[in-house]
Design brief:
39% of the residues lie in helices and 21% in strands. The chain is built from 12 helices and 16 strands. Strands 3, 4, 5, 6, 7, 8, 9, 10, 11 and 12 form a 10-stranded mixed beta sheet that branches. Strands 1-14 form a two-stranded antiparallel ribbon. Keywords: Membrane, Transmembrane, Transmembrane helix.
C-alpha cells in the first residue's frame, strides 16, 4: 500500500550443520598442532612460575638473614608485615603453580582411556581442588584415584611446609642489645672514691681510708673478671653480670662505661657506651744479686751501677712479691711510680714501673670524667696499704712508704721472672680493676645522654630448617614442573579459552540442551556413553563420543 514502509525481514540463526567442505575448512584453518611450539609455550609458563617461587623464597631468606643479623629492632611490626606479605605471596604462587600443573596434565589423564561423561567433566574441572576431591570420590579407576591422591598430597605438603617456616624463628624482647634515644641517663659518679662502701668515714684518716679502699677495690675486681680486648661490648649491649667488665691487651687494660635508665623510669636497662678509660704500665726489671730471698732489709740489683735499694718495709721471705710506693716521690694526677721485689730463693727480680691512668675516651660531659682523687689512688693501688703503713713505728703515717705483699700463689703475686710486659700487665689490671669497682659501687648521677629503650630481636631457632624448607620447596617445584611438562606435552594441551573449549565439546554435545547443568548433560548422554580424547588428522587431539 502506498505510504507504508516495506516489512523488515527477520533472520533466525540457523542450527543446520555446515556442509563437509565448510567443516573441513573450519577445522583445519586454525587447528594445526605443533608439538614443539606447545612445548615452548608450556616451558615458558612453567619456568616463569618457578622463577617467581625462587625470587620469593630468596626474598624470605634475605629478610630473615637481614633482620636476624641486627642486634636489636625498634619494633616487630615492620618485620611481620614484610615476612607475612612474602609468605602469602609464596603460598599463592606455589598454589597457582600446582594448579597450572594439574591444568596441563589433566589432558593426559583424559587421554588414557575412554571415560564416562561425568568423570570426563570432573577431570576437565580438576584444577579446582573441590572438583578434584569430587572426582576422586566418584571414580572407580585406580589411575584417576592415584592422580587425585598425588596432587592433593602435594598441595597439603606445600601448605604444611609454609606453615612450618613460621616455626623456625621467634621475635622476642631483646636481652642483649637495646636501642637508645636522647634523654636523661644514670651514670656513675667518678669524681671521688666513696669509702663509705668499705669503711665508716673518718675525716682524720681520709687519705688512709682512700688508700685502703683503692687497694680493696683492686682485689675485688678479680671476682668481676678480666677479658681480652676483642670481648669489649658494643655500644648498646645490655649489661650482663656474667660477662667481664675489664679488658686487657699486652700492657694495658680498659674499662667500658655503662649508662642506665633513671630510677623513675617504668623499666630498667643498663647498656654499654662508647666511652672507656685505659690504664697502662711501663716497667723496667733487673735481677737481684743480693737479698733476693726477701729476708734482708737491703737488696743489690744487677744494673750498670749495682745499685742498692733499702730498707725494705717488710721481710716476708721468698715466694712472694712485695709492691712498694713512696708518696714522697714525684707523681702526677694520672701517674705514679711503683716498685716491686719478686722474692725468690733461686731467681729474684726487682722492678720499677710507671703506672698511668688515661683520660676518658669519647667523654662529652664533665660528669663523664674520672676525678683526680680517683686516678691518684688507682695508679699505685696495688701497693697501697692505708692503715699501719710505717717503717719507723709511727702508725697511720700518710708520708711513709706504702707496701703490700702478695703470695706467689695469688693472681697479683705470681712470679714472671723478668718478663716486664707481663709485670706491666699485672699493674694495669689492678689499677683498671680499681676504676671498674669504683664505677660499679659509687652512687649514680643523672646527666643528658642516650637513654636505653626496649627493643626486640629476631632469633632463628635453626638455620638448617630454614634452608631445608626453602630449598626443598624450590627443588620439588622444579622437579614437578619437569615431570608435568614432559607428561602434558605427550598430548595436546588445550587453552582456558571458553570459546576454544566450546569448539572442542561441540561435536559431542550437539543434541544436548544448552540450559542443563553438568550432571544433567552427562545423564542425557546415556549410561553407555564414553568420551575419549584422542589424536585426529593433523596430529591434533579431539574429543570423541563412543557408545
Amino acid at each position: 500500500m502506498a505510504g507504508q514502509e516495506p516489512a523488515k525481514e527477520m533472520r533466525i540463526p540457523s542450527l543446520v550443520e555446515p556442509d563437509a567442505a565448510s567443516t573441513h575448512t573450519a577445522r583445519y584453518a586454525y587447528e594445526p598442532f605443533d608439538r614443539k611450539s606447545q612445548f615452548r609455550r608450556l616451558l615458558f609458563r612453567s619456568l616463569t612460575r618457578w622463577l617467581i617461587t625462587v625470587a620469593l623464597a630468596a626474598s624470605i631468606y634475605g629478610v630473615l638473614w637481614s633482620y636476624s643479623s641486627k642486634p636489636v629492632l625498634a619494633s616487630k611490626r615492620a618485620f611481620n608485615v614484610v615476612i607475612l606479605g612474602l609468605s602469602i605471596g609464596l603460598g599463592l604462587n606455589i598454589a597457582s603453580s600446582l594448579k597450572g600443573m594439574v591444568s596441563e596434565t589433566r589432558w593426559w589423564l583424559l587421554s588414557l582411556r575412554p571415560t564416562s561423561p561425568r568423570e570426563a567433566d570432573l577431570i576437565l574441572q580438576s584444577e579446582n581442588l573441590s572438583r578434584m576431591i569430587l572426582l576422586g570420590l566418584n571414580t572407580s579407576r585406580f589411575s584417576i584415584k592415584l592422580f587425585v591422591s598425588f596432587w592433593l598430597l602435594v598441595n597439603l605438603a606445600a601448605q604444611i611446609a609454609l606453615a612450618t617456616l613460621g616455626l623456625t624463628y621467634n621475635v622476642n624482647p631483646s636481652d642483649k642489645f637495646a636501642l637508645t634515644r636522647p634523654g636523661l641517663v644514670s651514670v656513675p659518679d667518678m669524681s671521688e672514691i666513696q669509702t663509705n662502701k668499705v669503711l665508716s668515714p673518718r675525716p682524720s684518716q681520709a687519705i688512709s681510708a682512700l688508700r685502703y679502699t683503692a687497694n680493696s677495690y683492686g682485689l675485688v675486681a678479680l671476682a668481676i673478671g678480666f677479658g681480652s680486648l676483642h670481648e669489649i661490648p658494643q655500644p648498646g649491649a645490655v649489661f650482663n653480670p656474667d660477662n667481664n667488665l675489664t679488658f686487657c691487651g699486652q700492657t694495658s687494660c680498659r674499662y667500658v662505661f655503662y649508662e642506665a635508665t633513671p630510677s623513675h623510669a617504668s623499666y630498667f636497662a643498663n647498656v654499654a657506651t662508647n666511652r672507656y678509660v685505659e690504664t697502662s704500665a711501663s716497667c723496667q726489671g733487673w735481677r737481684v744479686l743480693q737479698g733476693g730471698d726477701g729476708l734482708r732489709r737491703e737488696i743489690v740489683i744487677d744494673d750498670s751501677e749495682k745499685s742498692k735499694y733499702g730498707p725494705l718495709p717488710a721481710l716476708n721471705g721468698p715466694e712472694q712479691t712485695l709492691f712498694m710506693h713512696n708518696p714522697a716521690e714525684p707523681s702526677g694526677d694520672t701517674w705514679s711510680i711503683v716498685m716491686a721485689l719478686e722474692a725468690s730463693s733461686t731467681d729474684p727480680w726487682f722492678y720499677r714501673c710507671n703506672v698511668t691512668i688515661g683520660s676518658v675516651i669519647n667523654a662529652v660531659a664533665k660528669e663523664h670524667l674520672v676525678g683526680t682523687s680517683v686516678s691518684r689512688m688507682a695508679a699505685p693501688a696495688i701497693a697501697l696499704q692505708g692503715y699501719g703503713a710505717s717503717t719507723t713505728g709511727v702508725a697511720n703515717s700518710t708520708t711513709q712508704l706504702q707496701f703490700q705483699s702478695y703470695p706467689a700463689e695469688s693472681s697479683f703475686g705470681r712470679p714472671v721472672r723478668g718478663d716486664t710486659n707481663a709485670f706491666s700487665l699485672l699493674l694495669a689490671q689492678f689499677s683498671c680493676g680499681v676504676l671498674t669497682v669504683v664505677a660499679q659501687s659509687n652512687s649514680n648521677i643523672l646527666v643528658p645522654g642516650l637513654m636505653p629503650i626496649k627493643g626486640v630481636t629476631l632469633e632463628i631457632t635453626s638455620w638448617k630448617y630454614v634452608h631445608l624448607i626453602l630449598a626443598t620447596g624450590v627443588g620439588l617445584q622444579l622437579l614437578l614442573t619437569v615431570l608435568a611438562l614432559v607428561t602434558a606435552n605427550s598430548v595436546q594441551v588445550r587453552s582456558h579459552s571458553h570459546l576454544a573449549m566450546a569448539g572442542l565439546l561441540r561435536p559431542v554435545l550437539r543434541d544436548v540442551s544448552s540450559v542443563a547443568n553438568g550432571r544433567q548433560v552427562a545423564s542425557m548422554m546415556g549410561a553407555d556413553a564414553r568420551l575419549s580424547y584422542a589424536p585426529g588428522r593433523g596430529g591434533g587431539y579431539h574429543l570423541l563420543l563412543e557408545r
